[in-house]
Amino acid sequence: xxxxxxxxxxxxxxxxxxxxxxxxxxxxxxxxxxxxxxxxxxxxxxxxxxxxxxxxxxxxxxxxxxxxxxxx
Length: 72
Description:
- By secondary structure, this protein is mostly helical.
- It has one domain: Orthogonal Bundle (Arc Repressor Mutant, subunit A), CATH 1.10.10.10.
- Helix content is 58%, strand content 6%.
- It is built from 4 helices and 2 strands.
- Strands 1-2 form a two-stranded antiparallel ribbon.
- It is globular.
């Protein structure tokens, strides 16, 4: 199981197949939409089914992907 698989799942029967935090119906996109106008703490208050560990791991993975794409 990859780090991404540990925290995120995509299933056509949940949120129309959009990636969601494992064990929730909260989409990963919701996290990034929320961070445009608010803080991670505010997101976690609004979506208590998502753990800080899950959210931070997804943010770290996104940053790693962006940095590796730019460096390539």
